[in-house]
Each structure stands twice: as structure tokens, then as C-alpha cells.
Amino acid sequence: MSNKTINLGHVDKPVCPKCGKRDYNIIDYGVSDKQELGMYWFKVRCKNCKQKFKYYKDLD
Fold it and tell me: Vertex 38, ends 32 and 50: CA angle to 5°?
């Protein structure tokens, strides 16, 4: 895992399924094995309610 910062942009940020906030820390990420969902996957933890969730995204 590198220290490279990835700018996801606020508009495309998914909301937390538990509390609906868009404020979270990225725990882990990698290249997706489900290309139809997105090129990369991100495992994140919500800063508000500590819920962990995973989402897929294509980076331009």
C-alpha cells in the first residue's frame, strides 16, 4: 500500500449506510476483482458512527 493520496471528490462520495454522512477514513483499498462495479474498491470507516463499509469506484 502506498502513501499516494487519491482525491475522490465530494460529489462522488458514497454516504454511510448507517447514518447517512459522507465523512469517513479510508482503511484499505485495492484493484477490484468485480470490474462491473468499479476498477477499485475502498474499505472505509465512518467518522461519525464508526460503521465500516466497502464501495467500488472508477477513477479517471
Answer: 80
